[in-house]
Every structure is written in C-alpha cells, then in structure tokens.
Structure to design on (180 residues):
C-alpha cells in the first residue's frame, strides 16, 4: 500500500472541488477546508458549505470544520468595497482565506496546502500563487502551486458538477459581487 502525503485543500465551492480533488487524489491524501467568510448572506454560505460536504461524502474526502466570521472578512477588505471584481478586494479576499488555510494546515501538522481557486478562468493563478507562498511562509508550511484550470480542469469540473447535480452559484460570493 502506497502512503500519500496529506494536503489541506482550501475549497471555495463544491463544483470547483470536484476536478481538483480528482487530480490531487492520485498523489495526496486530501483533507478539505471550506473557509469562506466572504460568502453572503448566511443562507448562501450554509447552502454552499452543505454542498461541499456532500461532494466530500461522494468522492471520499473529509472536511475540517471552519468558522464563519464575516466581520473579520469585512475588516480584511475594508476600504476596498468599491473595487471591481478581480481587483484589489479580491486579492485581500484570497489572502484572508489562504492565510486561514495555511494556519489550519499548520495546526493539523499537514505540510502541504493548496486551493481550488485556480480552477476558475476568472481568477489569476499567478496572483493566487504569490499569496499562497506568502501564507505558507507566514505559517511554516508549503503551498502547492498547481494551476487547476490547465489540462481542461474547468471543463472537467463542469462535467462532474453536472453528473453530481451540484448547485452552481451565479455570483462569486461576497455582498459586493451580489450587487454587481
Ligand atoms: S468578488 Fe469573489 S473573490 Fe472578490 S472579494 Fe468578492 S467573494 Fe472575494
């Protein structure tokens, strides 16, 4: 039996976790972490969190509990409320979630962590890698720099989401993306 190293996977939403998990599972023992206090309102957060748990049950990974603390997220993006989507508010949002993921990996003694965020065609993988490295250095762990949108990753996530009949949200997550 081959023992794979563990990796903490920050999951931004259930659909994105499908193809990312499929790719990681070949080489890692994946532990999910749904840390997304950016999601507004609470009902939407609960819906997405429950869907992430459902994918975990189907595909075979566990989810570490995460706190929902939108006030802390509000403070992290203070002053950036009117930034356009993909702008500086999103950079601060990525940093908030990836810092939390790196801290959780450290707490669980998991050396590697990564995120489903790079599977999105709307998100800059280079920027996410930079923030991942910053979070890893701050918490003494390693960030796995994989651009999951490559090799048709996004297309595969659409196929798997359809097969599993997953809820697909129609806005990124925060109150500012809801109004735009
Ligand atoms: S648009 Fe998405 S990535 Fe940007 S701040 Fe809002 S939730 Fe975060």
């Amino acid at each position: 039996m081959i023992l794979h190293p563990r990796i903490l996977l920050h999951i931004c939403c259930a659909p994105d976790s499908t193809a990312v998990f499929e790719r990681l599972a070949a080489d890692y023992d994946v532990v999910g972490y749904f840390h997304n206090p950016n999601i507004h309102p609470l009902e939407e957060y609960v819906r997405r969190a429950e869907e992430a748990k459902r994918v975990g049950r189907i595909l075979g990974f566990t989810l570490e509990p995460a706190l929902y603390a939108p006030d802390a997220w509000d403070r992290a993006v203070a002053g950036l409320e009117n930034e356009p989507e993909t702008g500086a508010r999103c950079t601060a949002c990525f940093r908030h979630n990836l810092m939390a993921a790196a801290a959780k990996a450290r707490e669980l003694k998991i050396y590697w962590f990564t995120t489903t965020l790079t599977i999105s065609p709307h998100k800059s993988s280079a920027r996410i890698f930079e923030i991942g490295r910053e979070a890893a250095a701050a918490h003494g762990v390693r960030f796995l720099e994989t651009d999951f949108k490559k090799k048709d990753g996004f297309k595969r996530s659409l196929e798997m989401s359809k097969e599993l009949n997953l809820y697909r949200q129609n806005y990124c997550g925060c109150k500012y993306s809801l109004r735009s």
